[in-house]
Write a structure and sequence with these properties.
InterPro entries (chains A, B): Ntn_hydrolases_N (IPR029055), UCP009120_prtse (IPR016545)
Oligomer: homodimer
Distance between the termini of chain A: 46 Å
Protein name (chains A, B): Peptidase
CATH topology of chain A: Glutamine Phosphoribosylpyrophosphate, subunit 1, domain 1
CATH architecture of chain A: 4-Layer Sandwich
Shape of chain A: globular
Number of helices of chain A: 5
CATH superfamily of chain A: Aminohydrolase, N-terminal nucleophile (Ntn) domain
Chain lengths: ~240, ~240
């Protein structure tokens, strides 16, 4: 399993992915699920993946070599807009399905993949997309300024309650770490280390890339501190005046 | 879908269930998923259900009329221990499977049910069980003093982080309401009103039964207050000293 989350904020994008890949519970590996491509000052992209690792790696390889879109072969460095970038990723997913889908189905393996694509191209706004296994996609908006893929339920309540388009980037970092920690605690198939990427609006480059391990002092503070903060918060809530006989 | 949660605390049991039953998204009804039976001063039981409503209603009806266990027909008023009570509920589930399982399978309907059984019988401790569709069961312990059925993921992080066996009943009420609210916000098939039951240890009766509706003033305070408390909590957390370029 996997948990990846992306925040689409006024100040930029905050992206976080876990690294656990498993085939059964006794075959666990670490693979980054975050791919980044940037031409500083011109364009920056990050792709986060969940689902079948063979599919998501094939998608990224095809994107690097070029995928047919609008009649010619393009990479993320060629597309004129973020919308075309999302289309290109979708086209890459469809190419992989054309190539591998039938053989996978013959082995009883579903075509399971979901991708987050965030980024910005000079002259236009930063955007964040979720691309499905069918190659179609949705986009984060100011109404719902976050997208998740993989094991999303444990980490969703904190985002539902507090993330807004106006949330500052630094607060966004705290929130995706809390969201990830909630997931790590509840699902063994989501695991450390995690990869963090922050892309400031109009910076047109990765502003912060960090692999966060078990030893990361700040993340350890978040893990311990958040449980304490929740405990304080519920204790501070008034009790009901209901009588228990 | 459904969300039911039970806390097994030193001071007693706190049980909460939603009431939404749906067959598709355009056929939604309110059914209580909490059944209570008590002989004040002697024994008290509550059964919370998720899954197929026809199954859980049949289970409760059979329990009322008597289910074969250890060679004779018994109800929850006859069993000598909470362990036997859980066995009896499991036996009722198996009877329903014997009666209806094949016909349901013929219609492509899975035998989907999960039940929480909490209670106490005079002279022994209060206990909380989760009974599966196969009629077997597990029990909450001091290590993991809560059990959930139905759509459990959204409401689990808060419980994972703060519920302990020593949590007071009043705090337990706050926590199950926060856990339920997290679920209500994220899954449309879990809906208000919710049914709350508190059974104080050794009281051998329902200590508090309350149907909580949209209009319940305390629950509204929890809903609004918790989001505010989380916002304050994450803002109060120190920011990392990482630099975003």
């Amino acid at each position: 399993m996997t948990y990846c989350v992306g925040l689409y904020l006024d100040e930029g994008l905050v992206l976080l992915s876990d690294t656990r890949t498993n085939a059964g519970v006794d075959n666990i590996s670490i693979f980054s699920k975050m791919q980044v491509d940037e031409v500083p000052g011109q364009r920056v992209f990050a792709m986060l993946s969940s689902g079948n690792l063979a599919i998501s790696q094939a998608v990224w390889n095809r994107l690097s070599e070029g995928v047919m879109l609008d009649g010619f072969r393009q990479t993320l460095r060629d597309v004129p807009t973020m919308f075309r970038a999302a289309q290109l990723v979708g086209a890459a997913v469809r190419e992989v399905y054309q190539t591998d889908g039938q053989a996978m189905a013959a082995q009883g393996v579903g075509f399971d993949v979901a991708l987050l694509l965030g980024g910005q191209i000079a002259g236009a706004a930063h955007r964040l997309f979720l691309i499905y296994a069918a190659g179609n996609f949705i986009e984060a908006t100011q109404d719902t300024p976050f997208l998740q893929i993989g094991e999303h339920k444990y980490g969703k309540p904190i985002l539902d309650r507090v993330v807004e388009f106006g949330t500052p980037l630094m607060d966004g970092i705290k929130l995706v770490l809390v969201s990830m920690d909630s997931t790590l605690r509840s699902n063994l198939t989501v695991g450390l280390p995690v990869d963090l990427l922050v892309v400031r609006r109009d910076a047109l480059a990765a502003g912060l890339r960090r692999r966060i391990t078990e030893e990361d002092e700040y993340f350890r503070g978040v893990r311990d501190g958040w449980s304490g903060a929740l405990r304080d918060a519920y204790r501070a809530m008034p009790a009901p005046d209901w009588v228990i006989s």
